[in-house]
Amino acid sequence: MAAVDSFQLLYREIARSCHCYVEALALVGAVYTTSRAVVFARDCYSLIRLHFLPRLMHSGDLLHRFGEWAVILGASEDLAKAYAEELARKGVSIILISPDGQGVEGTAKAIADSHGVAALSVQADFSEGHAVCRPIRDVLKDKDIGFLITSMDVSLGSLEAFAGLPEDHLWDAVSRNVAAATLLVRIVLPGMAERGRGAVVNISSGLCCKPTPNKAAFTAITAYLDHFSRALHYEYRHRGVFVQSLIPFRIRSQEGGVSDKGGHSGGWLEPQPQVYARHAISTLGISHRTTGYWPHSLQFWLVQYMPEWIWVWGTHVFSRTQ
Q1: E-assigned strands of 76-155?
Q2: What does the pLDDT read at residue 186?
Q3: In 164-307, which ranges are continuous DSSP H helix?
């Protein structure tokens, strides 16, 4: 009995001495829980403000807000075509730039006939060097360029070991994505800054936030476009130019496959290009870095907080099932 009494007395003394530490731990836990709740509430508010409210409200006249003409780089890509058609539907005239001149001419004519706007096409292969900028400058001269949309060539999006990629394929990919986007921004940005309005949208991929084995070149290019856009945003936002890094995940192609801006159909997680473009355009002027589509924002949030080793392991598992 004495031993029991001694144990209870010892327990009470220990509990009394540790009481201040217990209170401190409880306070830390309460502060952490509150901070997480505030962050969660902020993220929910941002999701609603970015992806839902703009689609319920009138976005205003894009022509007067940004400019009369839109330059679309990578017009042979499904997403770039959808973006061009959506802008044309809002009355913006279109200039399509692509190495595939004949195919782009047909797209330009279809856009002009369908939406009653001016539509021009320029054949320019940036793998041939910066001399291709001269004919582009000639076409853009004296035009009120309000939009520049650059879309990645997704040919590097398939899973393949880096050493197995042909050198000419890598050269074309870097030239048509990194060099082309950088040089075109250099061409249109001075005019936008002088007029005090304009929007530059560089479309890459949500994979920019994680290194992905067997997609080394692809993810490196997406990371370049993402950082390039974010840096330009801070540099030119005070001069009236809105620069956006658009980072989608998987988008369904026109043929029913899946574009690896990130097969099988994934439902609402893999929207049609037209659906995605409609959502993405509603974010112009609101967020300088976004997935453009709210289900992709949930994916991006998950990928950001996922440990890198889990991401790499998942990539290896996925590649073995292909």
Answers
A1: 93-98, 119-123, 145-151
A2: 95
A3: 167-174, 180-195, 216-236, 273-281, 294-305
